[in-house]
Write a structure and sequence with these properties.
about 350 residues, alpha/beta, Aspartate Aminotransferase, domain 1, Aspartate Aminotransferase, domain 2, 2 domains, four-stranded antiparallel sheet, 10 helices, globular, binds 4'-deoxy-4'-aminopyridoxal-5'-phosphate
Length: about 350
C-alpha cells in the first residue's frame, strides 16, 4: 500500500442492481414500475421553464413537501424530502443512530443498511428472520441504538402486521424506529397511522416504485416535527440543494394524480397475484408477497442456473449469492405481457 493510501477511507460499497439496456429485454431485476409516470407529469414537463435552471432550487423543497403533506394529511413540518429514499435513509442513519449500542435490522433485508452502518461507523446486530422469512418481533425487545426494517421486507416481500410494528414501537420508546415503506403501496399496512401515537417513529417512502419515478430520485420521510427538524439540520450540514428543480416540479404533479396512482397499483397487484399462481404451477415456492416482486425458489432447479438461463434470453431478475437466500430469485412484477413471456420461458425451460 502506498503511504498516501493509508489514510484513505475504504469501504465495501452497496452493489446496485444491473441496468442493462437491450432493446428486447424484459427487466424484472430492480423493482421498477413497468408503467410510465402519470401523464400529468409529462404535461408538466412540457411546460418547464428552462431559463429557471440557472437558478438554484428551493433548498427547503417547499412545494413538494407541501404536496406530500396534503396527500398524507400531515403538516408540512412533518415531511422531509430527499434524493430517493436511499438519501433519506442515509440522512436518517446519520441523524438518528448515534448511540454506542448496536442498531438492529434483520439478517435478510435491504442490503444497503449494513453499508450505511459501516460507512457511518454505527454498530449493528442482525437478528435472523425465522425459517419462513418472517421478522420475530421479540428479537427487537433488547437494548439497542435504534431500529430499521422495511415493511414489506426486501427482498422477501413479506409484510408485518401493524400490531407487530406497534409492539416493536412499544418496546422501543427510547430510540428511533425507522420503517422503510419503499413497497408499502402494493398492499402492506402502513405505519403512518401510528405517527401520532409514537413520537420516535419515522416512516420512509419513495416515488421510485408505486409512482413510477425511480429515474427522478424522490424519497421522503414523515415523522414528528422535532425529528424532521433534526433531519433537516443534518441535511443542511451536508448538501443544502439536494432536490433539483425538475424533480420538485414533476414530483408535485406525480403526487397529485391519485387516480392514476391507484389504477397503476391495481394493475401491478393483479399481475402479481396472477404471477403467483403461475409460479406455483411451475413448482416454485415463496412466502406471500405484498410488494411489487416475488422472492421464489424452485423445488428442483437451482436459482443460479435459472438466473443465467433467463439472462441469456435477456430476461433480467435479481439473484443474491448470499447465505440463506442463494437459492432464490427476486422477480419484479412487470406488465401482464412481460410476466406472460417470463412464465412461458420458464415453462419451456423446466419441461
Ligand atoms: N428501501 C428499500 C427496501 C429498497 O428496496 C429500495 C430500492 N433499492 C430503497 C429503499 C431505495 O429506493 P429509492 O432510493 O429509489 O427511493
Amino acid at each position: 500500500m502506498k503511504n498516501w493510501e493509508r489514510n484513505i477511507r475504504k469501504v465495501i460499497p452497496y452493489t446496485p442492481g444491473e441496468q442493462p439496456n437491450e432493446p428486447d429485454m424484459i427487466k424484472l431485476n430492480t423493482n421498477e414500475n413497468p408503467y410510465p409516470p402519470s401523464p400529468k407529469v409529462a404535461g408538466r414537463m412540457a411546460q418547464i421553464n428552462m431559463d429557471q435552471m440557472r437558478l438554484y432550487p428551493d433548498p427547503a423543497v417547499t412545494d413538494l413537501v407541501h404536496a406530500i403533506a396534503v396527500r398524507y394529511g400531515r403538516k408540512d413540518e412533518q415531511v422531509f424530502v430527499g434524493v430517493g429514499s436511499d438519501d433519506v435513509l442515509a440522512m436518517s442513519f446519520m441523524t438518528f443512530f448515534n448511540s454506542d449500542k448496536p442498531i438492529l435490522f434483520p439478517d435478510i433485508t435491504y442490503s444497503f443498511y449494513d453499508v450505511w452502518a459501516d460507512l457511518l461507523k454505527i454498530p449493528y446486530e442482525r437478528p435472523a428472520l425465522d425459517d419462513n422469512f418472517h421478522i420475530r418481533k421479540e428479537d427487537y425487545y433488547g437494548e439497542n441504538g435504534g431500529i430499521v426494517f422495511p415493511n414489506p421486507n426486501a427482498p422477501t416481500g413479506v409484510a408485518m402486521p401493524l400490531a407487530d410494528i406497534e409492539d416493536i414501537l412499544q418496546h422501543n420508546q427510547d430510540v428511533i424506529v425507522i420503517v422503510d415503506e419503499a413497497y408499502v403501496d402494493f398492499g402492506a399496512p402502513s405505519a403512518l397511522e401510528l405517527l401520532d401515537k409514537y413520537e420516535n417513529l419515522i416512516v420512509v417512502q419513495t416515488f421510485s416504485k408505486s409512482r413510477s419515478m425511480a429515474g427522478m430520485r424522490i424519497g421522503y420521510a414523515m415523522g414528528n416535527p422535532v425529528l424532521i427538524k433534526y433531519l433537516n439540520d443534518v441535511k443542511y450540514s451536508f448538501n443544502s440543494y439536494t432536490m433539483n428543480r425538475l424533480a420538485i416540479e414533476l414530483g408535485v404533479e406525480a403526487v397529485k394524480d391519485e387516480e392514476y396512482f391507484q389504477e397503476t397499483l391495481r394493475k401491478i397487484i393483479d399481475t402479481r397475484e396472477w404471477t403467483k399462481e403461475q409460479l406455483r404451477k411451475l413448482g416454485f415456492t415463496f412466502e406471500d408477497s405484498k410488494a411489487n416482486f416475488i422472492f421464489a425458489a424452485h423445488k428442483s432447479v437451482p436459482a443460479a442456473e435459472l438466473f443465467q438461463a433467463l439472462r441469456e434470453k435477456h430476461i433480467y431478475v435479481r439473484y443474491f449469492n448470499k447465505a440463506r437466500i442463494n437459492n432464490y430469485l427476486r422477480i419484479t412484477i412487470g406488465t401482464r405481457e412481460e410476466m406472460e413471456a417470463f412464465t412461458a420461458f420458464l415453462k419451456d425451460y423446466l419441461n
